[in-house]
Amino acid sequence: CVCVCVCVCVCQVATNTMDNPLLKYNAKEYFFKASLCHFIVDELNAKLAIEKYEEMFPAFADSRECKLLKKLLDAHEEQNCEAFTEAVKEFDSISRLDQWLTTMLLRIKKTIQGDAGDLK
After folding, report:
1. Taking the chain, what is the end-to-end CA distance rounded to the nearest angstrom?
2. pLDDT (tens digit, 0 to 9) for every residue of the chain, 120 residues total?
3. Domains and CATH numbers, the chain
4. Is the dihedral angle over the CA atoms 62, 46, 30, 115 positive or is it negative?
5. For the whole model, what pTM was predicted?
6. What is the Cα–Cα distance from 60 to 83, expressed in whole angstroms?
7. Which of 4, 17, 76, 119 has its CA 20 to 30 A from that of 103?
8. Rg of the Cα trace of the chain?
9. A GO biological process this protein is involved in (predicted)?
10. CB atoms within 10 A of CB 112
């Protein structure tokens, strides 16, 4: 699966940056993107990845990105599109989402609506 390969690659980049004093602040973004890739695969995959990333890089656990992921997981678990959309809007109001993030989030949201199609 392409998403799994992307997850592994992005996670590796994050792991490499978190040990570099000049790049460690970018690690949370890479862990965020890797988590979204895992989310595309399935909810459990994302949950386990997030837990792993929090252990590997404790600063990720306190980040806005991680808090968003947890809200998205809760909304997905409850099949609540409104809560999902609100969490994304709240995040976007402070940190604008780029095209890639928007695309990934829309793919995940479609799985809530029961319209997953072939996203993998």
Report:
1. 6
2. 444 445 555 556 666 666 766 667 788 888 899 999 899 889 999 999 999 999 988 889 999 999 999 999 999 999 999 999 999 999 999 999 999 999 999 999 999 865 544 443
3. 2-112 (1.25.40.10)
4. negative
5. 0.81
6. 22
7. 17
8. 14
9. intracellular protein transport
10. 21
Rounded CA gap, 46 and 5, in Å? Answer: 14
The helix/strand/coil state of 49 is helix
C-alpha to C-alpha distances, 16 to 21, 45, 48, 62, nearest whole angstrom: 11, 22, 20, 20
Nearest to 14, CA basis, from 24, 4, 3: 24
